[in-house]
Specification:
102 residues; mainly alpha
Length: 102
């Protein structure tokens, strides 16, 4: 634990910058791709659960499509889930190909 006394010099480092550095370091250490969380969440709901489940599936052909369909719109109302699943089927999954899953 770091203790700063009233007479200590200011390092110029803001707490927000330090926390951002720790956050980035943690992300890099755990390996999630950067900047796609919103896209994954828009298609599959909880992006953390989606990524965790993705390690159990072969991301090719029918297993990949079944996985995507089972997670499409997770947590959303039934009609929204149906809409996302239909979009995945009709586009053959091309709509989300640009979104890395691992």
């Amino acid at each position: 634990m770091i203790v700063v006394e009233a007479g200590d010099r200011d390092s110029g480092l803001r707490l927000a910058e330090l926390l951002a550095a720790f956050s980035l370091t943690t992300d890099l250490g755990l390996g999630p791709p950067m900047a796609d969380t919103a896209e994954v969440a828009a298609w599959f709901g909880d992006d953390i659960a989606f990524r965790a489940d993705s390690y159990r599936v072969d991301f090719a052909g029918l297993p990949m499509m079944g996985f995507a369909l089972s997670h499409a719109g997770a947590g959303a109302p039934f009609l929204r889930r149906l809409q996302l699943a239909a979009n995945l089927v009709l586009t053959g999954g091309r709509a989300v190909e640009a979104v890395p899953s691992r």
